[in-house]
UniProtKB/TrEMBL annotation:
Organism: Mucilaginibacter mali
Keyword match Transmembrane: yes
Cofactor(s) listed in the protein's UniProt record: Mn(2+); Mg(2+)
Residues that bind a divalent metal cation: E137, D138, D163
Keywords: Membrane, Metal-binding, Oxidoreductase, Transmembrane, Transmembrane helix
Pfam families recorded: malic, Malic_M
Protein name: Malate dehydrogenase (Oxaloacetate-decarboxylating)(NADP+)
Family from the record: Belongs to the malic enzymes family.
PANTHER family named among the record's database cross-references: NADP-DEPENDENT MALIC ENZYME
């Protein structure tokens, strides 16, 4: 098992030196009078007027094309709940760091004190001149569905709610690999999904797109199983209601092939794990505390493939494996949106990368001697430098093939080379 960190260490890490985790760095020299005349007045007026005459030149003369907004209102921060926009800021800064180090994308994290979805959309929509893309983050369901849909319709830059689609993409790649290792097929498996929020609904929908039968998914929210008789069900939950209102988490877990947790920490037990079908898989993805600990789940049975959302255990099923590369590919072809084809391209690129030999640098970063496709390695490691050149081109290609790209990549080898240089 990997190194544990303490509360004190985490607080000290964030407070030490310049507080927080991110800063703005100029890209041009500002050492001489001439430099200042270029960077500010009078030189800056020239690009202003070029952009005034041709709005697209904003991509040529400003940082817009490589700048993503990570935007939250703090209503569903990790599994910590509605802790407010300020309290969500460390997460948004963290996403900014990951965008930068994994895909060389610059980020402004924007925490907005607004829960009303209509007003929230008005604020975000008004930011379009500044950004090349919008990563919505940690906004609770059901508001997040309206917000993402509305902004996608109203904005001409890629908008993605990462908790929905990033999570769905990564866990779908992990599911493809876990089922192959366990000798099971999408169309046969019974899946218990605990949680019916942003992440859970989107994950279950993508599993269905990959072949899982809707009737084989049993979904729970904080009030119990989603069933036809409930009158408190939102539109998004409705598609996952079942006829049987008697399911409890305990009974649903009996004989289940897969458990997907996108809810709260510590809600399933070793006994429930023991009751699952032979060769099961558990993706306990609640952060920071999974639905069951890695130790308890793996102690319950030996034929289990176990994944969590955390960095300190094998099989980290976490959207960090997706958002930097999905946005990199989308930005590089100036995609108007992120569509299903682009998401599926990312799923398959991630699933395939896991089957390739793991480079020495990854073993070194995780202080492990060997790693190969198997129960403890169903998804690439976040510190794998190959992710960028594998996933971003797949996404960019899918955008071009589906008519969403505003600029084309012609030389794919040169593009991959340039990606590798970005993260050096
Ligand atoms: N590993 C990863 O990459 C990711 C992990 N997550 C994790 O998933 C979890 C949910 O995030 P998100 O979807 O954004 O949040 P939401 O607030 O949108 O959804 C939370 C869902 O969990 C349900 N829930 C809460 N408590 C329970 C319970 N005891 N049993 C069953 N369901 C419960 C809620 O029920 P109700 O609808 O009744 O309120 C709701 O449907 C968080 O822990 C988050 O950290 C999220 C994104 C990525
Ligand atoms: C990983 C993530 O986005 C979350 O837990 O909300
Ligand atoms: Mg999140």
């Amino acid at each position: 098992m990997q190194q544990k960190i303490t509360r004190e260490q985490a607080l000290e890490y964030h407070a030490q030196g310049r507080p927080g985790k991110i800063q703005v760095v100029p890209t041009k020299q500002t050492k001489t009078q001439r430099d200042l005349s270029m960077a500010y007045s009078p030189g800056v007026a020239e690009p202003c007027m070029e952009i005034h005459h041709n709005k697209d030149d904003v991509y040529k003369y400003t940082a817009k094309g490589n700048l993503v907004a990570v935007i939250s209102n703090g209503t569903a921060v990790l599994g910590l709940g509605d802790i407010g926009p300020e309290a969500g800021k460390p997460v948004m800064e963290g996403k900014g760091v990951l965008f930068k180090v994994f895909a060389d994308i610059d980020v402004f994290d924007i925490e907005i004190d607004e829960k009303d979805p209509v007003k929230f959309c008005e604020i975000v929509r008004s930011l379009e001149p500044t950004f090349g893309g919008i990563n919505l983050e940690d906004i609770k369901a059901p508001e997040c569905f309206y917000i993402e849909q509305t902004l996608k319709e109203q904005m001409n830059i890629p908008v993605m709610h990462d908790d929905q689609h990033g999570t769905a993409i990564i866990s779908a790649a992990a599911l493809i690999n876990a089922l192959e290792l366990q000798g099971k097929r999408m169309e046969d498996v019974r899946i218990v999904v605990n949680g019916a929020g942003a992440a859970a609904i989107s994950c279950a929908s993508l599993y269905i797109a990959l072949g899982v039968r809707g009737e084989n998914i049993i979904m729970f929210d904080s009030k119990g199983v989603l069933h036809h008789g409930r009158t408190d069900i939102t539109t998004e939950k409705k598609q996952f209601t079942c006829a049987d209102n008697h399911w409890t988490l305990e009974t649903a877990m009996q004989g289940a092939d897969v458990f997907v947790g996108l809810s709260k920490g510590n809600v399933i037990t070793g006994d429930m794990v023991r009751g699952m079908a032979a060769n099961p898989a558990i993706f306990a993805m609640a952060n920071p505390t999974p639905e069951i600990s890695y130790e308890e789940a793996t102690a319950a049975r030996a034929d289990l493939i176990m994944a969590t959302g955390r960095s300190d255990y094998p099989n980290q099923v976490n959207n960090v494996l997706g958002f930097p590369y999905i946005f990199r590919g989308a930005l590089d072809v100036r995609a108007k949106h992120i569509n299903e084809e682009m998401k599926l391209a990312a799923v398959h690129a991630l699933a395939e990368l896991t089957r390739l030999p793991v480079p020495e640098s990854v073993l070194h970063a995780y202080a492990i001697k060997e790693l190969a496709f198997g129960p403890d390695y169903i998804i690439p490691k976040p510190l794998d430098p190959r992710l960028l050149a594998k996933v971003a081109p797949a996404v960019a290609k899918a955008a071009m093939e589906t008519g969403l790209a505003r600029i084309a990549i012609e030389d794919w080898a040169a593009y991959e080379d340039s990606l590798n240089k970005r993260i050096g």
